[in-house]
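Please go through the sequence line and token line underneath and see whether the fold suits the sequence. See right below:
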Amino acid sequence: MEVNSVVVVGGSAGGFQAVADLMSHMPPGLDTAFFVIVHLSRKSVGAVLVQYIQKHTSYLCSLAVNNGHIKKGHVYVAPPD
């Protein structure tokens, strides 16, 4: 699955709702990968953010991993720290 575009969204710890609102308005089927970076300090919060965004979008959400393959239709959340 080739990615034709990438969208990167950044925010502070209070940006959970803004990110969820943005993703809820993304039409399904875009040839796009989304990257979300939110200022988080606790490791456990990363998984919570992934679950929170997943409730608001049909795109598959997961924590990003180093050297991971980028797929269209995915939302990659940067891990804390």
In short: The mean pLDDT is 88. The chain has one domain: 5-77. Residues 65 and 78 are 8 Å apart (CA to CA).
